Amino acid sequence: MTADAARRLPRWVPWLLMIAYVLPGFVGRDPWRGDDLNAFAVMLDMAHGGPWWTPQVLGEAAKTLAWLPYWLGAWAMQALPLPGALAARVPFIALLGLTLAATWYATYRLACHPGAQPLRPAFGDDVPPGDYARALADGALLGLVATLGLARLAHEIAPSAAQLAFGAGLFYAVSLGLRAQAPQPARAAWEPLALWWLSAWGWALSGAPGLMALVSCAGLVWWRRAGVPWPRLWIAALGSIAAALAVWLLAAAAERATDLWRPYWHVWGNATAWVDGLRQLAWFWWPTAPFALWTLWRWRGRWREAHIGWPATVVALVLLVTLHDGGDERTLLHALPPLATLAAFALPTLRRGVNALIDWFAVLFFTGAAVLIWLIWVAMQTGVPPKPAANVARLVPGFEPTVEVALLLPAMAMSAAWLGVVLWRLGRHAPALWKGLVLSASGVTLNWVLLMTLWLPLLDWGLGQAPVSRRIAALIPAGDCVLVHGLDAARIAGLQYHGGLTVRRVTHPDADACRWLVANPADFPGLARAIDLAGWQLRTEVPRLRENREKWLVFERVERADAAL
Predict the structure, then answer these.
(1) Is 139 exposed, middle or buried (0-12, 13-18, 19+ CB in 10 A)?
(2) N or C: which end of the chain has fewer CB within 10 A?
(3) Which domain holds residue 273?
(4) What is the pLDDT of residue 433?
(5) Phi (first) and psi of residue 386, to 5 degrees
(6) Same domain, 378 and 454
(7) Would the pTM of this model clear 0.85, i.e. be above it?
(8) Where does the sequence pass through the membrane (predicted)?
């Protein structure tokens, strides 16, 4: 290992990369269907006066028991003078930044261990341990950004994004406590415990107390192996136990205590579930998983040391829980920070030819993906080539593309920056540990920025609830309230946020004051049992996108004599 190889990234590079990676996806887009919009619905309900201790949407309990993410989003919507969707994302911008920072610092601390240091060179100066650790930490940060499974899920305001951040915080807290137990200042001794407590409570209150307990137990074992005194071990254990117990009591108060542990009661899945889970790993953990496997092979005699054993333990626990839980990709998220740390320790052992192969793959793959994104955008704007334009019109009917300068300029700037990075990498420069991951991290960031700029209006139209919500709102006279039946939290939030409607369920005490009803045709028998349809007349069917897919029924209350006519 030479000093040139262990040099650190210029500080402006990771900061610029983090800004380009974090902000797109949070700023400027609508909440999308799924967990993103479901979580926003709960936050919207809390911000408008709903109960904070029992997360719900119009009286119906939320699907996921996760208090802290909902509280953060609702508080931000009340406190910040921003549009509701953007305000709710502000805490999650900070949480994603916390995830990246915790991964960097955890890798730095682990790389400072004596067992992680490189051999002294026969000629030349020794590599300072701090420089070597910073170079590996830079590689871990680049590897985390380059992981394909992180981009979409980490940019949601769902509870899983908060779990990821606090899980990374606990990973860093344990890594910080694993340093040599020489006499230390009081602040250095208690800092890991404070981080442990904050992360354990945040992780548990974000809806994953079981996984938090497993990782905490593993962390206690590694702390004991490192010689951490028993009083600190008991304090750390008390923090984890108290967090899990508090979440259990909150869930019991909401009469949903069993929901917290039900995933861990499942019988181990069948062979099909295991195969599906392994297939998902192939793309979700790319490209950090191959690096991590190479680390485990090349460092196979050092698995008992903290810099390899601790991150490998966390990855193994998350993988077991994921396979046990049916291959949930949101559980897989928790393995990404320690996986990036493992991947970083592969960098000193890679040969130059392997690095060149990885770089050429990154150039070809990410450049091809970027060209495809630009090609489809041009087809949307001009109709040429005709086949991509026809496919977009068929899949997203009603969408009218426009050229938005505010979205086009960042896409052009990022594309030019990608060309600059490629030319820099192809040049003859002194080798650096992190050099092999620069193109992968930059390529993921490039394509994420292109999707969140060039394709953002298309994705908002196809994945959001704004178009159908506004079409329904146009049918409702101003000031009238709307009853809903068979609509999930995401659809209700769309009517409230995008449509600006006052929405109530058919079981609401003041339901008789509402003249309009929006229902899901899939639950029409349940609607007939819930209300007397003789007093309602179907006015129209509103498709969400295509006529042969999801439709919403819009009814108007009428007198019985009118209904008979």
Answers:
(1) buried
(2) C
(3) 64-349
(4) 80
(5) -70, -35
(6) yes
(7) yes
(8) 12-28, 86-106, 200-221, 233-254, 280-297, 309-326, 332-350, 357-377, 405-424, 436-458
